[in-house]
Amino acid sequence: MQSKKNTRAAHMGSGGEQARRPLLTILKAVTLGLLVTMVLLLLFSFLFCRQDLPLTLLNPLAAFSLLMGAFAAGYWASRSIGQCGMLTGALCGAALFLVLLIASLQTKAQVDLTALIKLAISLLSGAIGGVTGVNRRHGSSKIKPRRKEVEK
């Protein structure tokens, strides 16, 4: 009989191997989160170029892009690692925010209240993504629908 840890690693495929190297997994997840964030920012910038959208939407759409990137990073990392979803997701969100903060400081941007709000958004959405990723069932659902009994 396999232990619960071995069974989980067998269901996860290569994720079992990644569970032994969580730092590498988090680095890959942050890369995925950056990719998701950049794709959404490109999509929103395209919309701003094509449509006459008010500039007041700029910060909320940037925050939404960060939210989705942190969620994706936390989800993927915790699903690959298979444990400590909230912590793994929050670490992914913090790392994603740190990378984006360093990039924005290169353009001499100021760190203000908006940056703290985006830090909170990335931590929370990463943690939620992590919890979702850990609690997601692997493969098909184990819950089978009830059969209706046929009346005779």
Description of the molecule:
This protein has helices at 4-12, 15-19, 22-50, 58-81, 85-106, 113-135. The chain is mainly alpha-helical. The longest helix has 29 residues, at 22-50. It is globular and about 65 Å long. The relative contact order is 0.15.
Summary tags:
152 residues, mainly alpha, TIGR04086 family membrane protein, disordered N terminus, membrane, transmembrane, 6 helices
Brief overview:
By secondary structure, the chain is mostly helical.
Uncertain segments are 1-15
Distance between the termini: 42 Å
| Global shape | globular
Radius of gyration: 19 Å
Tell how many strands the DSSP assignment holds: 0
Which strand-content bin applies to the residues?
Answer: under 5%
What kind of sheet is the major sheet? Answer: none
**Tally of separate helices:** 6
Helix content: over 70%
Mean pLDDT over the residues: 83
H and E order: HHHHHH
What structural class do the secondary elements suggest?
A: mainly alpha
Q: How many discrete structural domains?
A: 1
Secondary structure topology:
Elements: H1 4-12, H2 15-19, H3 22-50, H4 58-81, H5 85-106, H6 113-135
Helix pairs in contact: 3-4, 3-5, 4-5, 4-6, 5-6
Organism: Yanshouia hominis
Keywords: Membrane, Transmembrane, Transmembrane helix
Transmembrane segments: 21-48, 60-77, 84-103, 115-134
